[in-house]
Amino acid sequence: MAKKDCLKKLKPPTVIKRSNINREIKNGLYGETAANVIGTINKNCEIYGFTKGQFSCIHILEHILKQTGKADVTICTWSAASGDIKAAHNMLKMGGINNLRFIVDFSFKSRKPKFCKELIGAFGADAIRVTSIHAKFILIKNEKWSICIRTSMNLNFNPRFENFEISDDQNLYCFMNDVVEDIFKTQENYEGFISPSRGKKSYKELYHPKQENLFDSFDECDLKNDL
Question: Does the domain made of 22-214 have the CATH classification 3.90.79.10?
């Protein structure tokens, strides 16, 4: 995507404000599938949904791609499971996705070594970056669509109350994609998996917070027990 289409370089505070939102509210508390809850997406849509965790964000991605067509995709997740990794890889192999990138938390390797190895084996380390992250989102981009999915869902099945918000918004997409690009620039391939401490260091340095000791109290063990 041409740089001129995106926002200017991010500077703290990294906040984007939107107005005049015409939001659809979707109730997914009765076991509905992702397709049934979300339905048809439209240009400039804003859709909020609440579920009981009967589907994961990979099902949202599958449903959206059926309507957008082939696109570039970025997935940011704190955790992932084998079935969802395989589903994402299958979408890439079958041609539904042009390029697929991942951002995962530095604790993913120690928490889920088998799934981490599977993720690297399926997509390659050049498509994955490691940082201190708890945000979960998916970016979908082609010539027609600029979709951001923000959600409480990780890349795995989790039968708990979950929510999601789907927006077709060029400015929001560019804002979030700039964050992704900055994270990818902080490390070389495999670096985040070889040295988790380097991932934490690059996280602290990114955007240069004014309070230098703001993150000193964070401990990796605390993050391992987080959701």
Answer: no
